[in-house]
């Protein structure tokens, strides 16, 4: 039955092939319900995603004025790369990423490896305990860490006092402000990473471990030779995810240091924010955000390649 | 050997519990400080002490201790038959309670935090409902229908998943201004409806649904709209739950965009409101931490209720940390 109808349809189609556009319109009309289902998404997607993306690239070659924008070629990009603040922010963001991303992934791997052999109950308990601190907004986390870093009343200076260290003006000195933000990022548990690793570990074929155990491999050897290689795709995913996240670091900066002291904690997104919404240089801000876009892209591709090739 | 294994397991538990305690400490510090006793003086002190700003820091709300201390003193005074003393300690007990919870009273009376809470709730719920509906609709046709331009539309949407929010910050801001949505809640809701993740998630999920189910409904004479509601939506529920959680958390914690498009104090969301509280520099630290507590508790409750879906969403690559 079905084959019959489809052949008749084919015949019908071939007779109208000479009017190709007509049949396309027919196809579209026939599927009008599908387009209607897509319509709401497409409307918002075009207005608030597609147009803004194209517009961002156009703006980056323009000088924005309320009276009308003018084309300036690559001027915005040149200005961006000549600006000291932007260069510092690139460097700071880079350092921040290089330090915090490995810490995030390694901590997640170690904690997940410790939690995984425990029973189901313990697994879900620790999963919640490590994820809970990260479900709250970064604004809240930043507010309390700012207080914990307080020179006079902060708990950090109290703790290092036990070991005989002098109090440190953590966020108030240009040499300790960025390290303080990195310490904070490292000490916030990698809740998402732990959950993702745990899910991946529970999926590893148990017979691999059985075989290795029969061959006399120790627990550590099994971890090194089976668990870690089997987790490569997950590791890759987490490295990319956390790198992209770390290049977008913003909330801590605006809530804790405002980029200071000096430019010590300026990051790319904070500079974009200031350029656009404090100085209202929309063209320059767009150029900066296009640069951010390419950096993230390059990093993502680079990381994907290296981690995949090692596999 | 057995002994060794037991010891090993014990050490793992100790290590993990220690790490969990350390990681929960800042959150504990938020709650403890919101209940800390500010500028208080009892009969043994020469001058009032502000426990919020004391060195070394007080690791727990001192009011608890002080309350029981005053209670004991009152009992002692009553036993000794000293009326005046008993009344004094009774008043001190009241003072401790008042001062411990004073942050919450001030916050709800003098700031707009109640409005911010409701705004956050409203925006998160409206966006979640809208996203789940339109993304399930588009995910369905992209998974199950054949029509001209399908693949172009799908890839156009999916390819924007990698683009960071900051890239479109300025143009979206200009778009919002052009549409005269600046300083309205629509400025937060509409751009979120353009996100690609939900379409991707729903399409992947619905691809696995057998075509026969849809065909059968069609033979029964059901309209497309009816098929969507009676066949697709019930089957898509697990993915819809994950998408709801993802969207709700995203909207609730969203910060950069609200501080750009919202100006009016009455319209702010919780994170944006907390920022104005900190910027004002008038609020004491106790008050800031009280605000943080009010903002943190709904999300913690939400997480504990729907933990299962958080875990699912994370493994599907959904919920961002």
Note the beta-strand portion of chain A.
under 5%
Q: Main beta sheet of chain B, described?
A: none
How many runs of DSSP E, i.e. beta strands of chain B? 0
Residue stretches of chain B low in confidence (pLDDT < 50, at least 5 long) are none
- How does the helix and strand content of chain B classify structurally? mainly alpha
User: What is the oligomer described by this structure?
Assistant: heterodimer
Name the strands of the widest sheet of chain A in spatial order: 1-2
Order of helices and strands of chain B: HHHHHHHHHHHHHH
Query: Which residues of chain A form runs of ≥5 with pLDDT under 50?
Result: none
Rg of chain B computed from alpha carbons, rounded to a whole number of angstroms:
27 Å
How much strand content do the residues of chain B show?
under 5%
How many individual helices of chain A? 16
Structural class of chain A: mainly alpha
Radius of gyration of chain A: 27 Å
Mean pLDDT across residues of chain B: 88
Q: N-to-C SSE series of chain A?
A: HHHEEHHHHHHHHHHHHH
- Based on DSSP secondary structure assignment, what is the total number of beta strands of chain A? 2
> What distance separates the N and C termini of chain B?
40 Å
**Tertiary shape of chain B:** elongated
**Number of contiguous helices of chain B:** 14
Membrane topology (chain A): Multi-pass membrane protein
Transmembrane segments (chain A): 33-58, 94-116, 128-148, 177-200, 235-255, 282-302
Protein name (chain A): Sugar ABC transporter permease
Main location (chain A): membrane
Features:
heterodimer, A: 311 residues, mainly alpha, two-stranded antiparallel ribbon, 16 helices, 75% helix, flat, B: 321 residues, 73% helix, elongated, cell membrane (chain A), membrane (chain A), MetI-like_sf (chain A), Sugar ABC transporter permease (chain A), transport (chain A)
């Amino acid at each position: 039955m079905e084959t019959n109808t489809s052949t008749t349809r084919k015949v019908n189609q071939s007779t109208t092939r000479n009017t190709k556009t007509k049949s396309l319109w027919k196809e579209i009309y026939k599927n009008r319900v599908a387009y209607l289902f897509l319509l709401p998404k497409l409307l918002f997607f075009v207005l608030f995603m597609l147009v803004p993306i194209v517009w961002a690239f156009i703006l980056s070659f323009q000088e924005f004025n309320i009276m009308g924008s003018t084309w300036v070629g690559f001027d915005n990009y040149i200005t961006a790369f000549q600006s000291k603040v932007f260069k510092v922010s690139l460097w700071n963001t880079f350092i921040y990423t290089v330090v915090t991303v490995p810490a995030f992934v390694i901590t997640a791997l170690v904690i997940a490896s410790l939690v995984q052999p425990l029973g189901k109950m313990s697994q879900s308990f620790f999963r919640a305990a490590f994820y809970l601190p990260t479900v709250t907004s970064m604004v809240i986390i930043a507010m309390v860490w700012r207080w914990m870093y307080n020179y006079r009343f902060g708990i950090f200076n109290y703790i290092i006092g036990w070991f005989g260290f002098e109090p440190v003006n953590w966020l108030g000195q240009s040499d300790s402000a960025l390290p303080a933000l990195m310490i904070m990022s490292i000490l916030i548990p990698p809740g998402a990473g732990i959950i993702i690793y745990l899910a991946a570990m529970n999926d590893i074929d148990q017979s691999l471990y059985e075989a290795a155990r029969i061959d006399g491999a120790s627990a550590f050897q099994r971890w090194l030779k089976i668990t870690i290689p089997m987790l490569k795709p997950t590791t890759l995913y987490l490295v990319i995810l956390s790198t992209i996240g770390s290049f977008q670091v913003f909330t801590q900066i605006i809530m804790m240091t405002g980029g200071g002291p000096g430019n010590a904690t300026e990051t790319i997104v904070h500079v974009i924010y200031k350029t656009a919404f404090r100085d209202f240089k929309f063209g320059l801000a767009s150029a900066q955000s296009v640069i951010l876009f390419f950096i993230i892209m390059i990093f993502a591709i680079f990381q994907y390649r290296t981690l995949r090739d090692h596999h | 050997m057995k002994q060794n294994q037991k010891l090993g397991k014990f050490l793992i538990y100790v290590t993990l519990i220690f790490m969990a305690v350390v990681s929960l400490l800042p959150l504990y510090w938020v709650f403890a400080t919101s209940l800390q006793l500010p500028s208080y003086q009892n009969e043994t002190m020469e001058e009032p002490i502000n426990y919020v700003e004391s060195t070394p820091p007080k690791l727990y709300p001192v009011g608890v201790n002080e309350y029981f201390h005053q209670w004991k003193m009152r009992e002692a005074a009553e036993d000794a038959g000293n009326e005046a003393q008993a009344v004094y300690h009774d008043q001190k007990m009241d003072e401790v309670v008042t001062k411990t919870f004073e942050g919450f009273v001030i916050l709800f009376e003098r700031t707009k935090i109640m409005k911010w809470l409701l705004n956050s709730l409203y925006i998160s719920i409206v966006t979640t409902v809208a996203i789940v509906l339109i993304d399930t609709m588009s995910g369905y046709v992209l998974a199950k229908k054949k029509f001209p331009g399908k693949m172009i539309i799908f890839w156009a949407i999916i390819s924007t998943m990698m683009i960071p929010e900051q890239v479109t910050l300025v143009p979206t801001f200009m778009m919002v201004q052009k549409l005269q949505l600046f300083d309205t809640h629509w400025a937060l809701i509409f751009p979120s409806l353009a996100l690609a993740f939900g379409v991707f998630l729903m399409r992947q999920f619905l691809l696995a649904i057998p075509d026969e189910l849809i065909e059968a409904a069609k033979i029964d004479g059901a309209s497309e709209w009816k098929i969507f509601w009676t066949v697709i939506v019930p089957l898509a529920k697990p993915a819809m739950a994950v998408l709801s959680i993802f969207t709700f958390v995203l909207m609730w914690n969203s910060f950069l965009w609200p501080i750009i498009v919202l100006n009016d104090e009455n319209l702010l969301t919780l994170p944006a409101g907390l920022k104005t509280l900190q910027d004002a520099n008038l609020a004491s630290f106790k008050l800031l931490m009280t605000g943080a507590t009010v903002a943190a508790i709904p999300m913690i409750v939400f997480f504990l209720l729907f933990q299962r879906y958080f875990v699912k969403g994370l493994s599907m690559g959904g919920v961002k940390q």
